Amino acid sequence: MTKVRINRTILLTLALLLIQTSVLPWLVPDAWSERLLPNLPFIMSVFVALFGGRHPAFLFGLGFGLLEDLLFYGHLMGSYGYFMALLGYLIGLVSDRRPRTIGFTLLAVGVGSAILDTLIYLVYRLFQYTSDSYGFAVYWHIVPTLLLQVALALALYLPVRRWMLKAASASDENAG
Amino acid sequence: MRNKRLFILMIGLILFIAMLGFTSGRTGLTWPERFVNDAFGTVQGALYRPVGAVSEFFRDLGRLSDVYKENEELRRTVAQYTQDKIHYNMVENQNKQLMKALEFKERQQKLYNYKYIPAQVVANSSNPYDKTIKINLGAHDGIKPKMAVTSVDGMVGLVSKVSEFTSTVMPITELDPTSSDRISISATVLGREEQTFGIVDYDKENNVLQMTRIDENAEVKEGDLIVTSGLGNVLPMGIIIGTVVSNEVGDFGLTHTAAIKPAAKFDHLTDVFVVIAPDVDAPDVDAP
């Protein structure tokens, strides 16, 4: 059983969020800037869900989701907060008592990212801020973003395992 | 246990929908939001520019061969500019004299006295449906919502949310005519300002910027430069929006609709200008 060092993880995620908004846009070529939109705090909340359980993941997803909502605020606020909390909780629930292999982690990031982008598309569609068809949204940004997210999760996997986790000692009470 | 979970989910859903409804179409920000925006903006600014400089450097290395041609072109433009400047000074002086002769009021004379304040982009959004840009000027520097933001190429967008030291810019490609918080830009063709008039918005269905409600007798050709008209007093006059790609009969057959290619690029922006129009309705201190 492992335990997440939550303070370190929060600091790392804040740094990753800054990188996502100010550094990554420069690395993405012009033609792809509307299609590759990584969401690093979401990857981190999947890690928290897998290694720390569903309740920390719920709060983590909620906090960083709302922070992203605020930083990107144009039309609506709240969609990232709600869905990242929900997905963090659900991924924590599904992965309970399952082996934490790298394959399962990547699968969770990929599926989670597709579901998150779909739900956010549906909210903006409902409020009529977009009129793209769902098929177009999948082709235009959901699939490219998903692939990038999986690649980034792969890159983050080892550092997170090394520095963000610690083996829980017998005296620790972690009921999960 | 299962009941409790469902209960929390329902409460969360209600809160979520309430929040969506409450935040849609709001212009102000509460103080915690402004604080978080400013705190992040400071660090984002420190990251965005250096990374941008390095990235631009490598991009420029790739197109060194174009620099010679570009230099040639710039030289020609400067020569043209010097001539135009002389002409402009003459016309401006004449205009001022005529205004005086016709007894224009102080307020009317200051109407077109725009200030261009340089600002720096500090971050981009990664929400696919809220492609906002953040700049490092805020209420402290006199920025207000709905001010126009331009780059050297043309109009980028409008200021949408203002914090103390940073503000959020909504690109013109997000101005959806069917959305609830629409803002219309009145526009005209450069050189034929008196004859043509239309409203610029973004057609999300076909992903083009378009100018609608053009009079069918008005002359709008491919390659014409579209600029803001300043009518309606929401936006200043004479900001470049883009060039006309095609002009066709509009939805109802009575007016024409032109497709426009935006002049500004929305990726990898660094320096932009916020256009501040003189507040003509405010009480004038210097007035005699």
Automatic annotation (TrEMBL), chain A:
It is a multi-pass membrane protein. It is found in: Cell membrane. Keywords: Cell membrane, Cell shape, Membrane, Transmembrane, Transmembrane helix. The chain crosses the membrane at residues 6-28, 40-64, 70-92, 104-124, 136-158. InterPro entries: Cell_shape_determining_MreD. One of its GO terms (cellular component) is plasma membrane. It holds the Pfam family MreD. GO terms for biological process: regulation of cell shape. Belongs to the MreD family. NCBIfam families: shape_MreD. This is Rod shape-determining protein MreD. It comes from Cohnella xylanilytica. The lineage of its organism: Bacteria, Bacillati, Bacillota, Bacilli, Bacillales. The gene is mreD.
TrEMBL record, chain B:
One of its GO terms (cellular component) is plasma membrane. InterPro entries: Cell/Rod_1, Cell/Rod_MreC_2, MreC, MreC_beta-barrel_core. Residues 64-108 form a coiled coil. Pfam families: MreC (PF04085). GO terms for biological process: regulation of cell shape. Residues 121-275 form the Rod shape-determining protein MreC beta-barrel core domain. Keywords: Cell shape, Coiled coil. It comes from the Bacteria. The keyword Coiled coil applies. NCBIfam families: mreC. Belongs to the MreC family. Involved in formation and maintenance of cell shape. This is Cell shape-determining protein MreC. It comes from Cohnella xylanilytica.
